[in-house]
């Protein structure tokens, strides 16, 4: 094919994409018709289904393929997730395949410089270095750090390679940084992970209470479904609780601003009012709820602890409790008392309690990183679940506490496959029966699978610093942008005796530190599956060829494992390996509690939700009307816990590990923007998205800027106890902090804001708190 013709066709498709995205922003209802009319005029296009490459919503896309290129995108009207709608990132997603600096060849560092080599040579070197490191320092000196962007086959092969092959639990994924508290919150409350509801709850709820998440920008398709629900029923209310004003708050029926870390006290104040006003479902509590008191023990430097290394120890032993003890516990959380240190008025606290407690309302609580990236992330998840359990508003259509996810397969590949140090594809390494179950499928001795977890993500990089880990293979993630207290871990990676392998599609600050770079196939350049936030598994075929010698992360892992002598663990032929891997993975999850949809079903439709039983997805778990795993006729059966009851936890308010003071008088919060996804390594290579938001900035309140004589667009210096960095100021942009707070997005590798953030984490989930530390602003 003529290259000029190919380029014209590619540009034409991308022009369609940009035009329709712009049209959709102004008039969503007509954009899809416009796209269909434009694209269907060209019979050269073939439309193929795939989930979106970006966030955890899992929108269904149709990608237009012409002459071997992905040239256009439209929403898949057959997808029950997005019903034909896409956000601006989804519409432009295929352009991420074609950046000018795409990695196409393997590279090896020789005499301090990276040089291109055949990928076979690079894979040989990776296998050799792993074997040498294990021989010299032991099997726990090697590690694999992956991602919620891994496909399900990627993650399954990674788990099998590390735990059944090498025999180490040194496997983690960056989802530890974004949804670990959702996992531990769900486990401690319900004994089983993943939400009980689904996105269709949006179509049934009367009230949406958003706990510190900017859905309008972070999960715009779900937010649009919420707005559509309100449009059809004007009595529907959206309540946005925020620490700064966002587009979500502007679109909400009511905005409630609160101080950082105050969500713990707010939830307890709501519970206090529910009990005081007798707005609880007593029958539900009697039949389906147990009360637990966390006997928390803190040792060491408690004032700055929260997962730091200063001799800090934390235990959270569960003790039985009861409703009366819970009432007594909540005596300290009257609306008047809580109002004094949360920034939320007593009237607003009572209003929230009224919404949760009203028998006429179906309530959906939604949250994301604001709750999960929290030094008490597990606790605040528990406390929001408490509100739904107190009122019996759970596991029925429209009554759903729902943690949203940031990555396309953080649920499918991390929570479900279990690519964390303590996890297995089914269960945990600490449980002998779970190890035996995995070992039988894998064909290894159960004792070969270690029974103790090793390093969670932050500790894994600390072990790289200390030298306990000498080899790290990083796939599909960019930790040299995303790790908190970043400078420490970048310096750790460069210490003598460390060997770093990075698999990626573009150069990043993480490939900058690599000894070996492996070029990866992206998304539709290979076959795979993602699992989204509502337990929906979605398959995609390989639609285009990867560039150069790029190969899938699955095949990279298998090639290295085979070179290390683990051929028996990876017997699949390269042509049909995805189907065979998925079918083996399904053996781990078989049964009514977590059965996965067959491969053939996923191929034929826009995803299926587990538990998939008798040819049907389960939309609502723990409810015998919908969930085949429940005891028939039980009403509600929280079968994850031994007593088949859900837990209400007595969890206190505790302050943040670092709070503003005279030296550092502001709060610093980090997060995302609509146009860019995570560290920006893909979206910043999409011209339209990059031009929309070309660089990071710092948001300040107008009053703070006026007081400090700072103008919009001027440069200031942010200083924390960990570093300093200059940013241009944005005043009255799309996000507006309250006085005493600033916000910086983290997508821009030229402004590594995580050099300034704190690496304190929830001691239960081990998830860091990126949302609050103290900072000083210096006028330049």
TrEMBL record:
<dbReference type="InterPro" id="IPR050123">
    <property type="entry name" value="Prok_molybdopt-oxidoreductase"/>
</dbReference>
<dbReference type="InterPro" id="IPR006311">
    <property type="entry name" value="TAT_signal"/>
</dbReference>
<feature type="binding site">
    <location>
        <position position="89"/>
    </location>
    <ligand>
        <name>Mo-bis(molybdopterin guanine dinucleotide)</name>
    </ligand>
</feature>
<dbReference type="InterPro" id="IPR027467">
    <property type="entry name" value="MopterinOxRdtase_cofactor_BS"/>
</dbReference>
<dbReference type="Pfam" id="PF04879">
    <property type="entry name" value="Molybdop_Fe4S4"/>
</dbReference>
<keyword id="KW-0813">Transport</keyword>
<feature type="binding site">
    <location>
        <position position="59"/>
    </location>
    <ligand>
        <name>[4Fe-4S] cluster</name>
    </ligand>
</feature>
<dbReference type="Pfam" id="PF01568">
    <property type="entry name" value="Molydop_binding"/>
</dbReference>
<feature type="binding site">
    <location>
        <begin position="670"/>
        <end position="679"/>
    </location>
    <ligand>
        <name>Mo-bis(molybdopterin guanine dinucleotide)</name>
    </ligand>
</feature>
<keyword id="KW-0479">Metal-binding</keyword>
<feature type="binding site">
    <location>
        <position position="178"/>
    </location>
    <ligand>
        <name>Mo-bis(molybdopterin guanine dinucleotide)</name>
    </ligand>
</feature>
<feature type="binding site">
    <location>
        <position position="55"/>
    </location>
    <ligand>
        <name>[4Fe-4S] cluster</name>
    </ligand>
</feature>
<keyword id="KW-0411">Iron-sulfur</keyword>
<protein>
    <recommendedName>
        <fullName>Nitrate reductase</fullName>
        <ecNumber>1.9.6.1</ecNumber>
    </recommendedName>
</protein>
<dbReference type="InterPro" id="IPR006656">
    <property type="entry name" value="Mopterin_OxRdtase"/>
</dbReference>
<keyword id="KW-0408">Iron</keyword>
<feature type="binding site">
    <location>
        <position position="369"/>
    </location>
    <ligand>
        <name>Mo-bis(molybdopterin guanine dinucleotide)</name>
    </ligand>
</feature>
<dbReference type="InterPro" id="IPR041957">
    <property type="entry name" value="CT_Nitrate-R-NapA-like"/>
</dbReference>
<feature type="binding site">
    <location>
        <position position="149"/>
    </location>
    <ligand>
        <name>Mo-bis(molybdopterin guanine dinucleotide)</name>
    </ligand>
</feature>
<dbReference type="InterPro" id="IPR009010">
    <property type="entry name" value="Asp_de-COase-like_dom_sf"/>
</dbReference>
<feature type="binding site">
    <location>
        <position position="771"/>
    </location>
    <ligand>
        <name>Mo-bis(molybdopterin guanine dinucleotide)</name>
    </ligand>
</feature>
<keyword id="KW-0574">Periplasm</keyword>
<keyword id="KW-0249">Electron transport</keyword>
<dbReference type="InterPro" id="IPR006963">
    <property type="entry name" value="Mopterin_OxRdtase_4Fe-4S_dom"/>
</dbReference>
<feature type="binding site">
    <location>
        <position position="52"/>
    </location>
    <ligand>
        <name>[4Fe-4S] cluster</name>
    </ligand>
</feature>
<dbReference type="Pfam" id="PF00384">
    <property type="entry name" value="Molybdopterin"/>
</dbReference>
<keyword id="KW-0004">4Fe-4S</keyword>
<feature type="binding site">
    <location>
        <position position="553"/>
    </location>
    <ligand>
        <name>Mo-bis(molybdopterin guanine dinucleotide)</name>
    </ligand>
</feature>
<dbReference type="InterPro" id="IPR006657">
    <property type="entry name" value="MoPterin_dinucl-bd_dom"/>
</dbReference>
<feature type="binding site">
    <location>
        <position position="478"/>
    </location>
    <ligand>
        <name>Mo-bis(molybdopterin guanine dinucleotide)</name>
    </ligand>
</feature>
<keyword id="KW-0534">Nitrate assimilation</keyword>
<keyword id="KW-0560">Oxidoreductase</keyword>
<comment type="similarity">
    <text>Belongs to the prokaryotic molybdopterin-containing oxidoreductase family. NasA/NapA/NarB subfamily.</text>
</comment>
<feature type="binding site">
    <location>
        <position position="174"/>
    </location>
    <ligand>
        <name>Mo-bis(molybdopterin guanine dinucleotide)</name>
    </ligand>
</feature>
<keyword id="KW-0732">Signal</keyword>
<feature type="binding site">
    <location>
        <position position="746"/>
    </location>
    <ligand>
        <name>substrate</name>
    </ligand>
</feature>
<comment type="function">
    <text>Catalytic subunit of the nitrate reductase complex NapAB. Receives electrons from NapB and catalyzes the reduction of nitrate to nitrite.</text>
</comment>
<feature type="binding site">
    <location>
        <position position="754"/>
    </location>
    <ligand>
        <name>Mo-bis(molybdopterin guanine dinucleotide)</name>
    </ligand>
</feature>
<feature type="binding site">
    <location>
        <begin position="503"/>
        <end position="504"/>
    </location>
    <ligand>
        <name>Mo-bis(molybdopterin guanine dinucleotide)</name>
    </ligand>
</feature>
<comment type="subunit">
    <text>Component of the nitrate reductase NapAB complex composed of NapA and NapB.</text>
</comment>
<feature type="binding site">
    <location>
        <position position="373"/>
    </location>
    <ligand>
        <name>Mo-bis(molybdopterin guanine dinucleotide)</name>
    </ligand>
</feature>
<feature type="binding site">
    <location>
        <position position="87"/>
    </location>
    <ligand>
        <name>[4Fe-4S] cluster</name>
    </ligand>
</feature>
């Amino acid at each position: 094919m003529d290259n000029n013709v190919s380029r014209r066709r590619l540009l034409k498709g991308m022009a369609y994409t940009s035009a329709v995205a712009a049209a959709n922003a102004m008039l969503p209802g007509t954009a899809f018709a416009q796209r269909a009319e434009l694209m269907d005029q060209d019979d050269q296009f073939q439309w193929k289904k795939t989930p979106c490459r970006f966030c955890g919503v899992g929108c269904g896309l149709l990608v237009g393929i012409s002459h071997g290129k992905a040239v256009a995108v439209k929403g898949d009207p057959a997808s029950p997730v997005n019903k034909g709608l896409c956000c601006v990132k989804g519409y432009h997603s295929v352009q991420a395949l074609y950046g000018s600096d795409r990695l196409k060849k393997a590279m090896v560092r020789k005499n301090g410089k990276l040089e291109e080599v055949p990928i076979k040579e690079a894979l040989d070197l990776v296998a050799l270095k792993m074997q040498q490191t294990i021989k010299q320092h032991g099997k726990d000196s090697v590690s694999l750090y992956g991602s919620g962007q891994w496909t399900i086959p990627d993650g399954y092969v990674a788990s099998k390679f590390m735990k059944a092959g090498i025999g180490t639990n040194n496997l983690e994924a960056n989802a530890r940084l974004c949804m670990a508290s959702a996992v531990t919150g769900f486990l401690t409350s319900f004994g089983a992970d993943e939400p009980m509801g689904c996105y269709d709850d949006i179509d049934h709820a009367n009230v949406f209470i958003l706990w510190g998440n900017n859905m309008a920008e972070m999960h715009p398709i779900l937010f649009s479904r919420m707005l559509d629900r309100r449009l059809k029923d004007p009595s529907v209310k959206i309540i946005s609780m925020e620490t700064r004003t966002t587009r979500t708050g502007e679109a909400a029926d009511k905005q409630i601003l609160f101080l950082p870390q105050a969500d713990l006290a707010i939830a307890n104040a709501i519970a206090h009012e529910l009990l005081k006003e007798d707005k609880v479902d007593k029958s539900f509590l009697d039949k389906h709820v147990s009360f637990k008191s966390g006997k928390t023990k803190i040792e060491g430097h408690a004032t700055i602890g929260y997962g730091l290394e200063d001799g800090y120890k934390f235990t959270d032993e569960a003790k039985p409790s009861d409703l009366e003890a819970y009432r007594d516990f909540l005596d300290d959380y009257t609306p008047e008392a809580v109002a004094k240190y949360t920034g939320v008025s007593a009237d607003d606290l009572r209003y929230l309690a009224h919404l949760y407690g009203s028998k006429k309302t179906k309530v959906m609580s939604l949250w994301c990183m604001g709750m999960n990236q929290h030094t008490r992330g597990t606790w605040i998840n528990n406390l929001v679940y408490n509100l739904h359990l107190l009122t019996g508003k759970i596991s029925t259509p429209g009554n759903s506490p729902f943690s949203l996810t940031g990555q396309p397969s953080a649920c499918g590949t991390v929570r479900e496959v279990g690519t964390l140090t303590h996890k297995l594809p089914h269960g945990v390494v600490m449980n002998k029966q779970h190890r035996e179950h995995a070992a039988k499928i894998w064909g290894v001795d159960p004792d070969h699978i270690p029974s103790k977890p090793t390093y969670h993500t932050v500790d894994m990089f600390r072990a790289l610093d200390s030298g306990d880990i000498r080899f790290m293979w990083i796939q599909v993630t960019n930790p040299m942008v995303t790790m908190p207290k970043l400078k420490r871990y970048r310096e750790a990676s460069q210490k003598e005796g460390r060997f770093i392998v990075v698999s990626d599609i573009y150069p990043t600050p993480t490939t900058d530190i690599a000894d070996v770079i492996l070029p990866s196939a992206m998304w539709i350049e290979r076959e795979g599956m993602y699992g989204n936030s509502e337990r929906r598994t979605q398959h995609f075929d390989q639609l285009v060829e990867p560039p150069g010698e790029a190969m899938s992360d699955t095949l990279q892992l298998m090639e290295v494992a085979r070179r290390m002598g683990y051929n028996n663990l990876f017997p699949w032929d390269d042509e049909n390996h995805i189907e065979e891997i998925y079918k083996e993975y399904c053996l781990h999850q078989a049964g009514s509690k977590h059965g996965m949809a067959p491969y053939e079903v996923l191929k034929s439709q826009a995803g299926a939700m587990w538990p998939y039983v008798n040819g049907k997805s389960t939309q609502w778990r723990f409810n015998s009307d919908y969930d085949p795993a429940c005891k028939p006729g039980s009403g509600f059966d929280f079968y994850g816990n031994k007593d088949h009851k859900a837990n209400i936890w007595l969890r206190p308010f505790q302050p943040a590990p670092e709070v503003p003071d005279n030296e550092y008088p502001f709060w610093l919060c980090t997060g995302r923007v609509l146009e860019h996804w995570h560290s920006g390594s893909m979206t910043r290579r999409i011209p339209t998205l990059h031009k929309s938001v070309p660089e990071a900035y710092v948001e300040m309140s107008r009053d703070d800027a006026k007081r400090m004589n700072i103008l919009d667009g001027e440069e200031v210096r942010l200083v924390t106890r960990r570093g300093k960095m200059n940013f241009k100021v944005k005043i009255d942009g799309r996000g507006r902090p309250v006085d005493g707070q600033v916000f910086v997005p983290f997508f821009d590798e030229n402004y590594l804001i995580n050099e300034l953030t704190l690496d304190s984490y929830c001691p239960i989930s081990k998830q860091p708190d990126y949302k609050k530390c103290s900072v000083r602003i210096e006028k330049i």
